[in-house]
Amino acid sequence: MTRERGLRQDAVRNRERLVLAAREVFGRHGLDVPLDRIAREAGVAIGTLYNRFPTRGALVDAALGPLAERAAEITERATQADDAWDGFACFMEQTCELLAEDRGYADVYRSRVAGTPIIDAAQQRIVTHKSAIVQRAKAAGVLRTDIEPSDLALLSWGIAAVVDATRGIAPNAWRRHLSILLDGLRPEAAHPLRIPPLTPQQVQDAKP
User: Fold this and answer.
1) How far apart are CA 71 and CA 81, in angstroms?
2) Domain CATH for 10
């Protein structure tokens, strides 16, 4: 019994080390990092990694699921802001902050990873609340009426690209870019858009 308990405790510790290492390595280098690098960072064999996480998706879900849930909480709070524009702007800013802070989450946000039920559930919450944020801002007359939730996905992907390009040069440059975008989303100077927004399915299809 003592030996079995010791083995179980070792397994728990190994899993915790792997999750922490994955969170750190994914955060610095993105999701394409070799899994053996994560195993080395955790101080375990690659076989131990696959015993705990048989797929890359399972490891991504364990490591970055909490960030996806944090993003969903940001979106939910934005729906409850007293001012519709403040809620919209805070949602955009705090979402982009997450993308800037963590390359792994930026990859999760812009791509599809199989076998990530925690992340998938959080992203579905984001979709629901993001629609409410947009509709509320348009109803209040503070957001141009031709903006749809799918537009925000593309704008956020653009911010993520700015982050990638300027991370080592001017890590806050994305904030200037976001400020320009937010001003452009106000209704006062809006011009008609000749191209329709992407459908939700098209947004999904655009993810690599």
Assistant:
1) 16
2) 1.10.10
Q: Are residues 77 and 119 in the same domain?
A: yes
Q: Which of 111, 90, 108 is nearest to 99 (CA)?
A: 108
User: 């955009």: which residue's tokens?
Assistant: 92
Nearest to 47 by CA among 59, 36, 31: 36
- Report how many domains make up the chain: 2
Global model pTM greater than 0.70: yes
Distances (CA, A) of 179 to 66, 84, 173, 175, 176: 27, 17, 10, 6, 5
DSSP assignment letter at 36: H
Residues 101 and 196 in one domain: yes
Its domain, for residue 132, covers 65-206
Count CB-CB contacts under 10 A for residue 47. 9
Q: Residue 92: in which H helix or E strand, if any? A: helix 84-101
What single-letter amino acid sits at 106?
A
* Predicted confidence (pLDDT) per residue in 103-161, tens digit: 999 999 888 889 999 999 999 999 999 999 999 999 999 999 999 998 998 899 899 88
- Ranges of H-type helices in 111-208: 117-139, 149-166, 173-184, 200-206
Q: Residue 114 sits in a domain of what CATH number?
A: 1.10.357.10
